[in-house]
Amino acid sequence: MLGWVIACHDDRAQEIMDRLEKKFGPLTQCRAVNYWRGLSANMLSRMMCDALHHTDSGDGVIFLTDIPGAAPYRVASLMSHKHSHCEVISGVYYSLLERMYSQRETLSSEAFRDAIVASGAPEVSSLWHQQQKNPPFVLLHDLYAD
Q: Which of 3, 33, 79, 111 could pair with 7 in a Cys bridge, judged by C-beta atoms 3.0 to 4.6 Å apart?
């Protein structure tokens, strides 16, 4: 089963998780990380790293963030490059996660990423989808190093 780390501003992550638990019961492999104004980037990174390790059973983890490019999204993006089957989604909201909940158990992280983006488009995107629009910067030196 895919782990979920719901990381949003203020108490939105906990609110979403509470509503999901009210509907589905206790959520396994799911953590809420609330990002409050004034929270240091270091503390946010530590909280999200802890959440990642508590939700990962080996099938992958989906970081579900509210605002593209904001601190939770940036921290998740950096972490995702160090862990296999880790996806970063932005623009999430309760009803979308409610619709996608059952697919945590059946889809791979990559298939889940594509399904949630398709279901929530155009507001919802992923780090992978954004990288397809803007390929990574490559130094000319690196191209001719061989």
A: 33
